[in-house]
Amino acid sequence: MISAIPQLWRLLRTGATFERTGAMREILDAFGVRGIPRFALRALAWPFGVFGRSGDPTLPPVARACQAMGPAYVKFGQILSTRPDVVGDRITTQLRYLQDRLPPFPIEAAREIIAAELGERALLIEELGPPVAAASIAQVHPARWGPSGEKVAVKVLRPNVARQFRRDIGTFYFIARVVQGIVPGTERLKPHDVVAHFEGVVHTELDLRLEAAAASEYRDNARGEARIHVPEIYWEGTGRRMLTMEWVEGLPLDPAAIEAAGLDCREIGARVIRVFLRHALSDGYFHADMHQGNLRVRPEDGALILFDFGIMGRLDPVTRRHYAEILFGFLTRNYRRVAEVHFEAGYVPPDRDVEEFAQALRAIGEPIFGQDVSQISMARLLAYLFETTERFGMETRVELILLQRTMVVVEGVARSVDQHSNIWEAARPVVETWIRDNMGPRQIVRDVGQTVDILRRLGPRLPGLAQELVMLAEDARTRRAHPPPPPPPPARPRWPALLAGVMLGVAGFAAGLLLLG
Question: Is the pLDDT higher at 256 or at 32?
Answer without folding.
Answer: 256
